[in-house]
Amino acid sequence: MKRLMDGNEAVGRGAVAAGCTFFAGYPITPASGILHFMMAELPGLGGMAIQGEDEIASIGMCIGASITGEKALTATSGPGLSLYSENIGLAIMLEAPIVIVDCQRMGPATGAATKTGQGDIQFVRWGHSGGYPIIALAPESVTECYSLTAAAFDLAETYRTPVFVMLDKELSLSRETVDLEAVRLPEPVRRIPAPPGSSIPYDFKEPSDVPPFVPLDGSVMVRYTGSSHDERGELCGSKAVLGRFTRHFTEKIEAHAAEIAIAGHDGDPGARILVISYGITAGAAREAVARARADSIRVSHLVLKTLWPVPEAIIRKAAAGASAIRVPENNCGLYGREIERIACGIDVGGIRKSDTSLITPGEIHSDILKSAERLVAR
């Protein structure tokens, strides 16, 4: 059945479809709709939804719920995400799977609370102490708010890590007609329990392995701590043990980057220009590419759904043969830096806008035309 809904409602429905049983959050524009939806829907499905006293308490409750076996969701925007920072690190240390929805708005600080932006793209990756990897997905439509939120829960459970879903004000509050029954979701990933009687919460052989969960059923004592620890959760100062764990935090995600990567590629084998987009800019980029092709300009288009870990193999394959890469972003070029790092020797640029307005298809089209003219002039 088709329904008219905004991105926030689609996130909530995707979370429910993935088996979410706990939500905690604090009201903030433009994420409040997720809080309202979960508080209205989750209790009737046997779950629990709480409006915390602030953002710090809200994400803390989600971490606590997660390590007791619940599938937990929280949602916020820029200022709230800043307050989440310490507990994001805690979730990484505890290997607590939680899903964090960031409905971006223009910053910094309180910024323009009712205006759009994509300025948190680097913050979600680096906004915690230690610099260890996380996973971040970027829907481009209301339908993908549904499907990628469900995917985020599966990734969180699979890799025992915080997973971010990156929306923005326009995507959060814009309505589309969505046929949820036409969206085929895989069977939700179930948490892998440790063997009966085990009290070792971080039992892995290779650093890239993901440890199973020890059930918190009262049968054994289980230790969780935010401090550096060994496989039993006991504080530890051994360089060998701590070095193994720091490699583990990195490798359990980076070693599986190809499995985590999601992207859509509309390629032209003869194209010398590649447009790379994500999130709300993807629709405008798609229209701009169609216009450029109508002008007989050969151009390819890559839409990234996974932002972190960076899908380097996909980007390199799409960029093969390209002489110019254009990356339209509603920020100061934050993700373009990742593209520059990967696409060595290829000119990388694009429309970069941080004035609260969306990037239009016409602006991207004009940027493609100018890039084509520069290539001809070489």
Any key phrases for this structure?
single chain; 378 residues; alpha/beta; Rossmann fold; 2 domains; 13 helices
What this model shows, in words?
The chain is of the alpha/beta class. The protein folds into two domains: 2-182, Rossmann fold (3-Layer(aba) Sandwich), CATH 3.40.50.970; 263-377, Rossmann fold, CATH 3.40.50. The chain has 13 helices and 14 strands. The chain has helices at 7-17, 32-41, 55-67, 78-94, 121-126, 142-159, 169-173, 239-254, 257-260, 281-294, 312-319, 336-342, 361-377, and strands spanning 2-6, 22-25, 48-51, 72-76, 98-104, 135-137, 163-168, 175-179, 263-266, 273-278, 299-304, 306-308, 324-326, 347-349. It has a seven-stranded mixed beta sheet with strand order 3-2-4-5-7-6-12, with helices on both faces. A five-stranded mixed beta sheet has the order 9-11-10-13-14, sandwiched between helices. Helix 4 links the parallel strand 4 and strand 5. The longest helix has 18 residues, at 142-159. The protein starts with a strand and ends with a helix. The relative contact order is 0.12. The model has no long low-confidence stretch (mean pLDDT 95).
Spell out the blueprint of helices and strands.
Blueprint: E1 2-6, H1 7-17, E2 22-25, H2 32-41, E3 48-51, H3 55-67, E4 72-76, H4 78-94, E5 98-104, H5 121-126, E6 135-137, H6 142-159, E7 163-168, H7 169-173, E8 175-179, H8 239-254, H9 257-260, E9 263-266, E10 273-278, H10 281-294, E11 299-304, E12 306-308, H11 312-319, E13 324-326, H12 336-342, E14 347-349, H13 361-377
Parallel strand pairs: 2-3, 2-4, 4-5, 5-7, 6-7, 10-11, 10-13, 13-14
Antiparallel strand pairs: 1-8, 6-12, 9-11
